[in-house]
Specification:
Order of helices and strands of chain B: HEEEEHEHHHHEEEHH
Strand content of chain A: 5-15%
Shape of chain B: elongated
Largest interface: A-B, 67 and 62 residues
Number of domains of chain A: 1
CATH class of chain A: Alpha Beta
Number of strands of chain B: 8
Radius of gyration of chain B: 21 Å
Structural class of chain B: alpha+beta
Largest sheet of chain A: 5 strands, parallel
Strand content of chain B: 5-15%
Order of helices and strands of chain A: EEEHHHEHEHEHEHEHEHEHHHHH
Strand order of the largest sheet of chain A: 6-7-8-9-10
Strand order of the largest sheet of chain B: 3-4-5
Oligomer: heterodimer
Distance between the termini of chain A: 20 Å
Helix content of chain A: 40-55%
Number of helices of chain B: 8
Largest sheet of chain B: 3 strands, mixed
Radius of gyration of chain A: 19 Å
Structural class of chain A: alpha/beta
Shape of chain A: globular
Helix content of chain B: 40-55%
Chain lengths: ~350, ~290
């Protein structure tokens, strides 16, 4: 847990991956490009002393991930967001199955999401059922901009997608994490489009729609939609990394998000291993709005707000009881491994003993 | 900016003239000059032949945006009467080769990328509209500061506004209010590009959806305009970081420390790069 102004903040990293981009796993040049692009983001927004070498970045493995997330208690829990990319990576880049290896080793520490692609049709629906049955996934991570064969992506407001969302609803898979990224090869009339979220969110009020990267580079469209759809949330991956060299920009973006969405619908995510909560959590916690931004937006990044953004909001989506977790973490495997028992034995413990 | 720019064949006056023309080319997402943004690597002049090389902050910048900048650069350079021939080269971009070839051959985007979905015109229109929304805020604020009521502001039409020198004159029910011309002229420029407010009796200020603004919603429209500006700046911050990651803090000359991507054949790539590979571009920073 993080301590800010004498108060403990329980941190749930809402966006992490365990990926494998080793050369032997890459079967298409897109896989190498993808990883190199990630690495640009990594170095671009990571303090120099925290940057990894490219080989570590390709494949860091479960042990390092565990250490990075929990070793210094930077995060208390984390949410896996799978990224399949089967066309590029022999065994996939970061699949539910790959993530499950670690998630199942420390089930009390991880939330494991699945994924679907409506273009998979009936087979895809069966796979979604399988993921629910096998892993009891509480959510999915989706890539609407992914190309496949002749298809240049898909929309969340299409009939096919609605069939899958219906299935999610039936299965109790409530959290729909959408990455709204641009198609990279030409061109796309949807270069600015997060608008399919709007119809999907109003058609499925029982589901939560978490827009990763807060729609950047379409923050404006995203905020306007989210202001009108109460079940739309903003995931801070990428945005949170702006606190590295761009504190003022980070403040502006937070100001806008808090103004349009409010403090209950903004979720922290490191996007590990793009960035490491090991240092990022501390940096975000210490970020401040300028006086000008406070006046402009009428919001504060105070302890109560940060508690929500850094943990409580994610906990709400995934039905995590933070107080129960604190008790559990006094002697779970991770706390034993990193000698964190005392860390979780603080004031929260009194009632339980 | 790279220190390696060649002065060979350099005619300083000619080079300055070319830069002036290029200064009018904007990164479409930021509505800022590609010269200010430091995208230009070199300008070489040989008689009436001009060659411009430029690099974007990331090899992943949207091909559509790269295309727009390349064609605009070509058109601007060729607008100089002494230029007989121009060549524009987009460097270090996943589709650099195709775009360079297509732009210099005078091909259309559709010819260059036959499998592209949508067209450049639609993207241009979407971007122009974002710039319109973004620039409206300061113009409206100037009027509010001058004491014009929201009711009056939302009912203004194009003909109520005249820019003369440093001043903009606003006709408010027969009364002329004078404000600083800069934000108003800037807005008029953007609104014209966006294709809105073309007739003298068209409503001057609009919602992002290009509708007239109810007076009691002027404040929320102002906030949406602010949001559009923050979005552009946020993209700029991302791309500036990528620019540094790619080229080092000193610009292109610092590129030795970054991995060599030239060995990767980007042109054959046709997949998704899902996670925030980007249309983002370099912008002002903190």
């Amino acid at each position: 847990m993080y301590e800010k102004d004498g108060e403990e903040i329980f941190v749930i990293d809402g966006h992490v991956h365990l990926w494998d981009a080793r050369k032997e796993n890459i079967i298409h040049e897109g896989g190498e490009q993808f990883l190199q692009c990630f690495y640009d983001y990594h170095t671009g927004f990571t303090p120099e002393e925290e940057q990894w070498d490219i080989d570590t970045y390709r494949h860091y493995g479960a042990d390092k991930m565990t250490q990075d997330l929990f070793g210094n208690a930077a995060a208390d829990m984390a949410v896996f967001q799978p990224t399949y990319l089967d066309d590029f990576y022999d065994e996939g880049f970061n699949t539910t199955e790959q993530n499950a290896e670690l998630a199942e080793e420390y089930p009390e520490r991880f939330v494991l999401n699945g994924s679907f692609d409506p273009r998979d049709g009936e087979e895809g629906l069966r796979y979604l059922e399988h993921l629910k049955e096998e892993y009891d996934i509480p959510g999915v991570k989706l890539y609407t901009a992914e190309w496949r064969g002749e298809s240049k992506g898909w929309r969340l407001d299409s009939d096919d997608a609605f069939e899958f969302l219906e299935k999610c609803s039936d299965l109790g898979i409530e959290n729909i994490n959408a990455h709204k990224g641009p198609t990279i090869r030409p061109l796309n009339r949807d270069a600015f489009d997060v608008k399919d979220i709007d119809d999907a969110a109003s058609s499925f009020p029982e589901l939560n729609f978490i827009v990763n990267h807060v729609g950047l580079p379409r923050l404006d469209d995203f905020c306007w939609i989210a202001a009108q759809e109460p079940n739309v949330y903003g995931g801070l991956a990428v945005a949170s990394a702006m606190s590295t060299h761009r504190q003022r920009k980070f403040g502006e973006i937070m100001g806008e998000l808090l103004f349009w969405l409010g403090e209950d619908r903004v979720l922290f995510g490191s996007d590990y291993a793009l960035w490491n909560p090991d240092w990022l959590v501390d940096q975000v916690m210490n970020a401040e709005l300028t006086d000008e931004q406070r006046d402009e937006y009428g919001v504060e990044l105070d302890v109560e707000t940060m508690k929500k953004i850094m943990g409580e909001n994610v906990a709400g989506l995934y039905d995590i009881d933070i107080e129960e977790k604190k008790r559990q973490f006094r002697d779970d495997d991770i706390s034993e491994k990193f000698d964190l028992g005392a860390h979780y034995g603080g004031d929260a413990g009194a009632a339980a003993d | 900016m790279s220190g390696s720019r060649s002065d060979a064949g350099g005619d300083p006056t000619g080079r300055a003239a070319v830069r002036d023309r290029l200064d009018r080319v904007e990164d479409p997402e930021l509505a800022r000059s590609i010269v200010d943004l430091d995208y230009i690597d070199s300008i070489d002049i040989d008689g009436g032949r001009v060659e411009v090389r430029f690099t974007l902050p990331t090899a992943w910048c949207s091909p559509a945006f790269a295309w727009m900048m390349a064609t605009d650069a070509r058109d601007e350079v060729e607008a100089l009467d002494w230029v007989r021939e121009s060549r524009i080269e987009l460097c270090d971009h996943m589709h650099g080769e195709e775009i360079t070839t297509g732009v210099n051959a005078g091909d259309s985007f559709g010819e260059t990328f036959p499998d592209a979905d949508g067209d450049v015109a639609a993207v241009r229109a979407a971007i122009a509209d974002k710039a319109r929304v973004s620039r409206q805020r300061e113009a409206v604020q100037a009027l509010l500061d001058a004491g014009v009521d929201p009711e009056q502001i939302v009912s203004l039409v194009r003909a109520d506004l005249t820019v003369a020198g440093d001043e903009a004159h606003v006709d408010v029910g027969g009364l002329s209010v004078v404000v600083d011309a800069a934000p108003v002229a800037d807005y008029l420029d953007r609104v014209e590009t966006s294709g809105h407010v073309t007739e003298s009796d068209d409503t001057l200020f609009l919602t992002p959806e290009a509708e007239p603004i109810p007076a009691d919603e002027l404040d929320v429209v102002q906030k949406r305009s602010r949001l559009a500006t923050v979005n552009m700046g946020g993209q700029g911050a991302v791309c500036d970081a990528l620019h540094r990651a790619r080229h080092g803090p000193e610009g292109l000359s610092g590129s030795e420390s970054t991995p060599d991507r030239s060995t990767v054949d980007r042109s054959a790539y046709d997949g998704d790069v899902g996670e925030f590979t980007s249309t983002w571009t370099l912008g002002d920073d903190d």
